[in-house]
Amino acid sequence: MASAVEVSKENWSRAVLNIPPDFLRLTPSNFQVVADHEAAMALHQQQIGFPAFGLAANTSGRLSITVAQAKLVKNYGLTRMDPYVRIRVGHYIYETQTDQNGGKTPRWNRVFHTQLPNGVNKIFLEIYDECNFTMDELIAWAEIKIPEAVIDKCETHEDWYALSGKSGDHKEGMIDLVLSFTPASCLYQRPVQPQQNVVLVPNVSGRALPVYVQPTPIQQIAQPPPPEMQQPMPQIHPTIQPLTDEDIANLMEMFPNIDKEVIKSIGEANRGDKDATVNSLLQLTN
């Protein structure tokens, strides 16, 4: 017959529930992960505004778009919205930073420089509310025709454009844009620039944030001396110098809203370069 202690242990083992480590851990859907990855890589390719070899073929020039602010008619949800803007010009896609608690009057003041393909005369614009635990909500959109004076006379044009949304066509509010254009004939050929490394850093909402890290400089190799003067040279292998605990602590004081593991990951991507790490962290907070 089992003792009282054995019976108690057996009852305890039945009562205790083994919870998996990822219990209640929110993970973004596969669709969101793929969409964010594609958006991050697109933003990475367009960060300098042009390909490294200059203007693409069938391009009329450079269009500069300043997304200044918006005035929306309604705040969707129980709390103030966190709006951001996504813009498409031809096949180029750009995204502003999120205006936290921007609500109905968000401000971005973000400038984009994009190539304008021949025959493209419209800008497609969407405003999203960034959500923490669900897919970001589309709250407004617009199809904006580029004024002829901007293209033909290279004039700078600022105007408020009507937004469509749940309230109806052209009834969701207004957005302030500044447009300017530089013809291809006035643009010089850009020198080849090295590709930037990109690190996808997840934030609380699960949206992958593209962080650009400083590329490792390429060391120039000198011409070898004549054979009679050659001597064996020690080989130097580049090593990654990780950030020290003191460096990480200092960075956490500078960026209290960024997780420690994120800081360490960006520091490793920058090969321990503290200045480059600070620049990358500033991208997350802007």
Low-confidence stretches: 47-53
First-residue to last-residue Cα separation = 70 Å
Arithmetic mean of pLDDT: 76
**Estimated helix fraction:** 10-25%
Strand order of the largest sheet: 4-1-8-7
**Helical region count?**
6
Instruction: Sketch the topology as an H/E string, one letter per element.
Output: HHEEEEEEHEEEEHHH
Number of strands: 10
Structural class: alpha+beta
The major pleated sheet works out as: 4 strands, antiparallel
Radius of gyration, in Å, reads 26 Å
What general outline do the C-alpha atoms trace? extended
Beta percentage is: 25-35%
Q: Topology, pairings included?
A:
Blueprint lengths: L3 H12 L14 H16 L13 E14 L10 E7 L2 E4 L11 E11 L4 E8 L7 E9 L2 H5 L4 E9 L2 E16 L13 E6 L5 E6 L31 H10 L5 H10 L4 H12 L1
Antiparallel strand pairs: 1-4, 1-8, 2-3, 2-5, 5-6, 7-8, 9-10
What does this 3D model show about the protein?
By secondary structure, this protein is an alpha+beta fold. 23% of the residues lie in helices and 31% in strands. The chain contains six helices and ten strands. The chain has helices at 4-15, 30-45, 148-152, 245-254, 260-269, 274-285; strands at 59-72, 83-89, 92-95, 107-117, 122-129, 137-145, 157-165, 168-183, 197-202, 208-213. The chain has a four-stranded antiparallel β-sheet. It has a four-stranded antiparallel β-sheet with strand order 3-2-5-6. Strands 9-10 form a two-stranded antiparallel ribbon. α5 (260-269) crosses α6 (274-285). It starts with a helix and ends with a helix. 20% of the residues are buried. Residues 47-53 have low confidence and may be disordered.
